[in-house]
Design a protein that fits this description.
Length: 275
């Protein structure tokens, strides 16, 4: 297995403006190995997908649980794994830095820090506060000398007041924090994606969300995107299959089992290991 530093270097090298890579999101070690076997070059955790494995809603897991999850995934595959570290599980910059330090110790190659406070009265940290938190995170990442790839993430479209110019201004401020990648989940359309990518110099990650799922890899490349996250979509799609159990239990029908693609089942089986 490659060293953590080698994984960090490999992960960073994938980020090229206008040459995006697909960044799928496993929710456990098994799904991570399946995605690696399918050809993924790097993986990212999903907060909502991981919460599903605990029988909880998104954002209902603790920092300790997320760190244990990061360690599981980092050691399950040979490719880089990055983590959704939410808001760093803290408000103060020094506490966010501590989360980065602990995350690096799990063996992951990167992670994101977002600006959503979880406080409905003040959904986003103000610009200076959000930037200070990222500066602290970036300092801790660079101090590790691993090459850890830090993503600066604004939740303005999902939890704030979604004005494109404000989102761009916030991302431009984040550029000076020392982060390596910029991310604004929830961009409404390809025009917004183009505007963001043309307004910043760092690689941009986008989330397949809403209207964006209709577009192709080539279209995202033309827009200047560097990375495409699936988010919790794969986890929710997998868990949604269990809804077929209702018909099995109520009507004695086993269509869910009979519909399993045997070739897909072989792919899954081939991805699993004995360790």
């Amino acid at each position: 297995m490659p060293t953590q530093k080698e994984k960090c270097e490999a992960f960073k090298s994938l980020h090229k403006q206008g040459a995006p890579f697909v960044f799928p999101n496993p929710w456990d070690a098994g799904s991570a190995r399946i995605l690696e076997s399918a050809g993924a070059k790097a993986l990212a955790t999903t907060s909502s997908g991981f919460a599903l494995t605990k029988g909880r809603r998104d954002y209902a897991v603790t920092r300790l649980e997320v760190l244990e999850h990061c360690r599981d995934l980092a050691h399950a595959v040979d490719i880089p794994v990055a983590a959704d570290l939410e808001n760093g599980f803290a408000d103060e910059p020094h506490e966010v830095a501590e989360t980065i330090k602990l995350a690096i110790e799990t063996g992951i190659a990167g992670g994101s820090i977002e600006d959503w406070t979880r406080n409905p009265d003040k959904p986003l940290y103000d610009q200076n506060e959000a930037t200070e938190r990222l500066v602290a995170a970036a300092y801790e990442a660079k101090k590790s000398k691993t090459g850890f790839v830090l993503t600066a993430r604004t939740e303005a479209y999902l939890h704030g007041d979604p004005k494109l110019n404000d989102v761009i201004n916030r991302l431009q401020q984040f550029e000076a924090s020392g982060a390596d990648v910029l991310f604004a989940p929830g961009l409404p359309d390809m025009d917004a994606v183009r505007a963001v990518c043309s307004s910043v110099s760092l690689p941009v990650n986008i989330l397949l969300y809403g209207k964006l799922v209709r577009h192709t890899l080539e279209e995202f490349a033309e827009a200047g995107v560097a990375r495409i996250s699936i988010g919790g979509g794969l986890a929710w799609a997998a868990y949604a299959q269990l809804a077929g159990v209702k018909d099995m239990l109520a009507n004695g029908r086993f269509d869910l089992i009979s519909s399993i693609d045997r070739n897909a089942a072989k792919l899954v089986s081939g991805a699993l290991k004995s360790d």
